[in-house]
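CORE FACILITY INTAKE
Project code: CF-77B
Contact: R.S. (postdoc)
Sample description: multi-component assembly, two entities in total
Requested service: structural model of the whole complex
Turnaround: standard
Below are the sequence entries exactly as provided by the requester. Do not edit them.
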Amino acid sequence: MLDQHGPAGPRTPGTATRGETVSTVPPASTAADAVDVTALLERGRTLATPVLRAAVDRLAPPMDTVSAYHFGWIDAQGNPTEGDGGKAVRPALAVLSAEVTGAAPEVGVPGAVAVELVHNFSLLHDDLMDGDEQRRHRDTVWKVHGPAQAILVGDALFALANEVLLELGTVEAGRATRRLTAASRALIDGQAQDISYEHRDRVSVEECLEMEGNKTGALLACASSIGAVLGGADDRTADTLERYGYHLGLAFQAVDDLLGIWGDPESTGKQTWSDLRQRKKSLPVVAALAAGGSASTRLGEILAADAKSSDFANFSEEEFAARAALIEEAGGREWTAEEARRQHAIAIEALNAVDMPEQVRARFTALADFVVVRKR
Amino acid sequence: MLDQHGPAGPRTPGTATRGETVSTVPPASTAADAVDVTALLERGRTLATPVLRAAVDRLAPPMDTVSAYHFGWIDAQGNPTEGDGGKAVRPALAVLSAEVTGAAPEVGVPGAVAVELVHNFSLLHDDLMDGDEQRRHRDTVWKVHGPAQAILVGDALFALANEVLLELGTVEAGRATRRLTAASRALIDGQAQDISYEHRDRVSVEECLEMEGNKTGALLACASSIGAVLGGADDRTADTLERYGYHLGLAFQAVDDLLGIWGDPESTGKQTWSDLRQRKKSLPVVAALAAGGSASTRLGEILAADAKSSDFANFSEEEFAARAALIEEAGGREWTAEEARRQHAIAIEALNAVDMPEQVRARFTALADFVVVRKR
C-alpha cells in the first residue's frame, strides 16, 4: 500500500508540529475557485437520478419498493419523500470524467448510475453485517424490511449495476464493467478487513489506510474514470484518473474520520463523538495510538479497558470528550488533517499527467477542494 | 411466462390419466445412448475445477478459506477434504456448448467457472435467507462462519464471476457477461418469489413454474450457451441454446421436486419427505392442490392446518407419508413426472434449431436424458 502514496509517502503519525494550524483547506487554485461546485454536483445528480430511478423500477416487487426506501425516495409506509440524496460527489465525477475525452457529460451517465448502484449494494449489505440501525437519519433496510430483503436487494442492485453498463453493448462498456468489477472486489475486501479489524486490539496506520483505500478509494477511483472509459479514453488515461479518484477517496475518508469524531452533529446528522461511540478504529485513533508518548500510551490503556467494559453504552458526553481530547493530544487529529491534505495533493498532481480541457481540470480540482473542506 | 413453454404449453394439473406409468425415463435416442455421460460430467469437472480453485484462491483471507469450506474442499477446521463436488451438470454443459461453434471445450471453461461462481453465490445467500442449516450433508457457511461471512463471501464470488469473464478482454466475454448478469438477475427474482410464496397460503402452478424457471432454468440456460458465446456463436444460436437449457432446468427442477418428496434418502442425502418437512410449495404440491377432487380438497385442508400447527416439527414418518399419499392420489406426482418429460421434450426440440456437430448434439441429448432419469 505504501507505494500508493507516491513521492510524499505517509509520514509517521505525531510528526506534525504541535500548534501548526490543522486546517484541511487546500492551497488556493484560481481556476478551481471560479467553479460553481454546487452546480457541478447538481448537474451530476440531475443527469443520473432519472436513469437510476428507471433502473431501480425494473426490479420485481418487492425489491423495487425496498430499493426506493433505501434511496430515500419513499418512506417505510411507501409514501414519496424528499430525500436529501447525499452529496452526489460520485455522479458528478462520473459525468465530468466523460468530458476528459471531449464527450458530452451524458456519456458518463450509465457509469454514474452503475457506480451508485454498487455503492448502495455495499451500504445495504454492510449495514446488515455491521448491525447498523440508522443511515441518513432513517432506519436501515434490514431494520425496516428484514435481513433477507437487505441481502436480496443488495444482490439485485449489484447485478443491475453490471446490466446498466453491459446493455450498452460496446467494447467501452465491457472495459468499464471490468473496472467496476475490480472496484467492487476492492469494496468487498475492504469490508472483510473492517470486520476482521473489529476483533483485533490494534490496527496499524497502514492497515487502516489500506482498508479505507478499498472501502472508499476504489469506488471514487472508478467514478472518476468510468465516464472517460465510456467516452473511449485509453487505459493510461483511465488509470491516471483512477489515481486521482483513489487519493481523493483517501482524502475524503480522512475528512470523514475527522467529522466522525469532531464533526458538528447539526451538519453531519450523526451523534456527537459518533465514531468513538462505535469504537471505530478510524484514522485519528490508529494514528494517535501509533504516535507514542504519554497521551498515546494513556489512550491505549483507556481504549483497551473500554473494549472490555460492559458499561460502554452508558458512557457520558464527558467520557467521550476526554477520549477525543487524548486523541488530539497524541497528535491523531493533526495527523489525519495533514493526511487529508497530503492525499488531496497527490490527487491534484495526478491530474497533471492527463490531457484534458482546462475547464474540466478546474472542475476536477474544485471537486477535490470541496471534498476536503466539507463539513458533512 | 407461459410462452416460454412453447407449443406444448403447461397442461392443467390432474389431466394425466390415472394409472398411467409415471416414469420420467425419456424416449430412447440411439446416438445419445452411446454417449458416456459419466465421462462427459467428469470432463467438465476436470476442466473447470482447477480454474475455479485458482479464482477462489485470489480472494483475500478469510474469504478464500470460507469459500473453500463452502465448496467442500476443506472442513470447518481447515483440513483438506474429498468433497463429492455435486453432479457438475453446469460445467459439463458450458464446455460442451463451446463445441457447438467448433471451438475446443477449453474455450468454455471461463464460462463454466463464472456460472459455478454465480450458482454458489446464490447458495450462500439463499441458505442464510432461508435459515437452512445443512447443505450436502454439511453445516452451511452461515452456521459455521457466521452470517456476515456468508453475505461477504457470496458477494465476492458474484464479483469474481464477472471478473473471470471480463478479464478475457474480448467482445465475446462482454456478451457472455451480459447474459450471465441477466441470469443472475433471474436467480435473484426467483429467490424473491420463493420468499414471498412462503408467506402465502396458495401458489398457482404457473407461479411455481415461473419461480423455478428463474431459480433453476435461467442459470442452466446460461450454462448451456456461455461456451458457445465465448466461441463466437451469434445471438440466435445462443438464444436457442438458452432455450434448451431453460427447459432442461425446468425438467431438472421437476425431477428435484419429485426426489424432494419421494427420493430415496440413501441416494439424495436428504431426509425422507424432505420438502414436506420444509413445507415447500413445490410442483407436486401445487399441482395436487390445483387438481381439484376430493384428495386435493383434503390435502388443502390438511396443509392449511399444518401451516398453523405448532407441533409440526414433531410429526411422525407416518404423518408425512399420509400427506405424500394424498399428493399422489390428487395427481401431483403424475403431473410433475409428466411435466419433467414435457420440459425434456421441449429442450431436445430446441436443439434441432441449431447447427452443430452430431456428436455434440448427441451429448446435449444424453445430458438431458441424464437430468431426467437421475436418482439424486
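Facility notes:
- The radius of gyration of chain B is 20 Å.
- Residues 1-23 of chain B have pLDDT under 50 and may be disordered.
Invoice: internal transfer
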